[in-house]
Structure formats: structure tokens, C-alpha cells
Design brief:
Chain A: It is found in: Membrane. The complex is a heterodimer of chains A (290) and B (138). With 290 residues, chain A is mainly alpha-helical. Chain A has 9 helices and no strands. The C terminus of chain A is likely disordered. Chain B has a single domain, classed as Cupredoxins -  blue copper proteins (Immunoglobulin-like, Sandwich). Chain B has a 5-stranded mixed beta sheet, with no helix packed on it. Classes of the chains: A mainly alpha (290), B alpha+beta (138).
Chain lengths: 290, 138
């Protein structure tokens, strides 16, 4: 029973953290109600995705094959990472104008819909990825049950695990309420970009261990650049959390640093370019209004 | 539970037990260390290109608990779940994560490693922690 609570709680927390960041990010916005519907729809779709992924894990996995599954995971992670960056960029442009538009009684721009699709897909991928493992674990455990008492104990364990995760989710949301919104926006924005880097790194590591496994890359890509596992190990709870949210690695190899470097250079370049490009349209818009 | 489904379940479990016994009797066992101080490689005609080691998981118990492999050498792990529940082979330091249904087998290719100790465990039952010890070749 303890094991079931543990697995359900831990796996759902990882998904809830992503949803929590998205939720907090939307909470301060004027059109949050629409966004939350999209978020909820994404969570529901995520359960569907989890069930589908579980099928490939338990029976169909032989049909789908290890190789195509690896590519699917890499694609999904890269897509999620790109979505996050795109969402942050969109928010930076529309964060200010959207409020003005709404205050002026204007209809929401069509671009708003596009951003909600990102929220939908991100929630779906977060739930689907973590969920498939949980679903498989629960399904496997369910097969071992026999007596009525064991069923009762099993389902209450699932409920307790979920409840514990929800409590932590609300704690996170409450934490957000005590902080000033301006600051919180900045923090969630940075957290989202870091989450994007963590997803991108995970995708690249799957690429390195999967499709690229047969290729011999230069040795420096494989060797540890530094080792601080004695300070904060990846295996510790904090280290593990930092790894999945901020791409923390206690023993990064050359590949990790190259991938993270490429990610941040690209993101910062796009942000810079966006800031430059933004100046002109804003001036035009003010001119038109005048 | 109906008697017929009970029968199927019992025969299913019996089959699993039988199969795992058959697997367990396969020689040689990676749990042993060879004369050179490294773990004994698995002898499997499917995997001849890379050094291949067998890891068995059984409801949280890991065999071997300590795997000794040479440094800077790519190797393959064949992971089997012999337990009665699903298992998840996970290593934070090796960034590996693979779920295995009951009686499932999977293979992982591990990139060349530096000398050191790397963890691995069953993420669904993280009671025992295994170690992959990477030693320098003489």
C-alpha cells in the first residue's frame, strides 16, 4: 500500500508542478478563465495520451519497436520545449498589450488562441509522460489483486497518493499568492525557460542513448566536465527535482553542456531579436492611435 | 473472483514463475566477478558488438547489486523484470529511465563512462540501490 501511495504521489507531483507553473503564470492575467479551460482540457487529453502510451509499453511495444518509441519520446520532449519558449515569447509581447486591449473593450486577438494551444499541449504532454508510467504500474499491481480487501486497500492507496499530491499543488499555489505579481511573472517566466531547457536536455540525452548509441562521438562529449555529486547528488530528492525543473546535473558531460549552451544561446538570441523588432510596431501602433 | 478467472490467473502466475526459473538457470551470471575484477559478461548471440551485462529486477531486489565495468567503454545492459509487479529501471547519474512490465526485457546502451560509481535502482520500489562501478582498465 505504501508503495502505491509513493508512486502515485511522486509521479503526479511532477506533472502537477508543470501544471502549477502554467496555472500560476495564467492566474494574474485578465483572460485567465479561458486559459484555465484550455489547461484543464490538456490535462484530460493527457490521461488519454497516458493510456495510449501504456498500451505501447505493455503489449504493443514489440510492434512499435524500441527505436520508434525512442524517436517519439525525443519528438515529444523537443516539441514541449519549443512550445515553452514560444509561449514565453508570446507572453512578453502580449502581456502588456493584452491588458490594454481588454481594458479598451477590444475583442481578444486571434493570436490568443494560438497561445492557448501551447498550454493545452504542454499540459497534455506533462500528464501523458508521467501518467503512462503510473498507469502501467497501477495496471500491473491491479492484476495481482485477489481479495476484496486488497482491492479496497489498493484504491484507497491511489486516492491517498493523489490527495497528497493535490495538497502540495495547493501549497504551491498559495505560495504564489504571497508574492507580488510583477515579481512572480518574472520568476515563472524564467522557470518556464529553465523547464524548457530541462526538457530539451532530456530529449538530447535520449537521442544520445538511443538513436545515436551506435555512433562513436568524440570522447570529450562523453567525459564528465566536473563532478559535484558530493555537494548535491542527482539521486537526492532536491537534486532530482532540480534536474527535472532546471536541468541540473551533478556530473555533466560535454554533451550536456553543449546542448544547454546551444539552447540558451538560441533563446537569448531570439529574445534580443524580439526586443529589437518590438520597438518598431509599437511606435507605429501609437502613431495610429493618435 | 470467478473460478475460471482464478484458474487463468493461477496459470498465468505459474507460467511467469516457470519462465523466470528458466531464465534464472541460464549461465553465466553477471552477478559474479571475473578473474580480471570486472563483472562477467552476458553470453547472448543477439548482442555481440558491445560488452553486454545482465541486470535482473525482482520486486525491488537488484541482481547484481554491484556491476563492475571498464572505463570509457560503451556497453549494453539487458534488463529483465522477474518480479510480480511492474518495475522501472532508473539511474539518475546515467540519466536512464525505462519501465518494464512483468516478465519484460529491454536493452539499454550506456555511453562511455569515466571512472567512478553510478547509481541504479527500481524506481517503483526504491528500497535497494545498486551500484555501477567503473574501473580503469589495466
Amino acid at each position: 500500500m505504501g508503495q502505491t501511495i509513493f508512486v502515485v504521489c511522486r509521479e503526479s507531483i511532477e506533472a502537477l508542478l508543470v501544471i502549477g507553473i502554467l496555472y500560476a503564470w495564467m492566474d494574474g492575467r485578465a483572460d485567465a478563465a479561458t486559459g484555465k479551460k484550455w489547461l484543464f482540457a490538456g490535462v484530460v487529453a493527457g490521461f488519454g495520451l497516458a493510456a495510449l502510451l501504456t498500451l505501447t509499453l505493455i503489449g504493443v511495444s514489440d510492434l512499435l519497436g524500441g527505436e520508434s518509441r525512442a524517436w517519439f519520446e525525443i519528438g515529444m520532449l523537443t516539441f514541449a520545449s519549443a512550445l515553452i519558449v514560444q509561449m514565453v515569447l508570446w507572453m512578453r509581447v502580449h502581456g502588456r498589450t493584452l491588458k490594454k486591449e481588454l481594458e479598451a473593450g477590444l475583442e481578444k486577438s486571434l493570436q490568443g488562441k494560438k497561445s492557448w494551444w501551447s498550454v493545452f499541449f504542454l499540459a497534455m504532454i506533462a500528464v501523458g509522460r508521467e501518467g503512462s508510467e503510473t498507469v502501467m504500474f497501477l495496471y500491473g499491481s491491479l492484476l495481482q489483486l485477489g481479495t476484496l480487501a486488497s482491492y479496497v486497500s489498493f484504491f484507497s492507496a491511489v486516492a491517498i497518493g493523489l490527495a497528497l499530491a493535490m495538497v502540495m499543488f495547493y501549497a504551491l499555489q498559495l505560495g504564489g499568492k504571497f508574492i507580488s505579481w510583477k515579481w512572480f511573472f518574472k520568476v515563472t517566466e524564467i522557470m518556464l525557460l529553465f523547464l524548457g531547457s530541462a526538457l530539451f536536455l532530456a530529449a538530447s540525452e535520449k537521442l544520445l542513448g538511443g538513436p545515436l548509441a551506435a555512433t562513436d562521438l568524440p570522447a570529450w562529449l562523453y567525459s564528465n566536465v566536473w563532478d559535484m555529486s558530493s555537494v548535491l547528488s542527482d539521486s537526492s530528492i532536491l537534486g532530482n527535482l532540480l534536474a527535472s525543473l532546471f536541468a541540473y546535473r551533478s556530473q555533466p558531460i560535454g554533451w550536456d553542456l553543449a546542448v544547454l549552451g546551444a539552447y540558451w544561446v538560441t533563446v537569448i538570441a531570439i529574445l534580443k531579436w524580439q526586443m529589437k523588432a518590438k520597438v518598431t510596431p509599437t511606435v507605429q501602433a501609437t502613431a495610429e492611435q493618435a | 473472483m470467478k473460478p475460471i478467472s482464478k484458474f487463468f490467473l493461477t496459470s498465468f502466475i505459474a507460467l511467469i514463475t516457470f519462465k523466470s526459473l528458466a531464465v534464472a538457470s541460464e549461465a553465466p551470471n553477471t552477478a559474479q566477478l571475473g578473474a580480471d575484477g570486472f563483472s562477467v559478461e552476458m553470453n547472448d548471440p543477439r548482442y555481440t558488438k558491445l560488452k553486454t551485462y545482465l541486470v535482473e529486477m525482482k520486486d525491488g531486489v537488484l541482481t547484481p547489486a554491484e556491476l563492475v565495468v571498464p572505463e570509457k567503454t560503451k556497453f549494453r545492459l539487458v534488463v529483465r523484470n522477474l518480479g510480480n509487479k511492474p518495475a522501472e529501471f532508473e539511474s539518475n547519474q546515467l540519466r536512464q529511465e525505462k519501465v518494464l512490465f512483468m516478465n519484460a526485457e529491454t536493452t539499454l546502451v550506456i555511453i562511455p563512462l569515466d571512472v567512478g560509481t553510478y547509481d541504479y535502482f527500481d524506481d517503483f520500489a526504491p528500497t535497494t540501490h545498486g551500484k555501477i562501478v567503473v574501473k580503469a582498465k589495466d
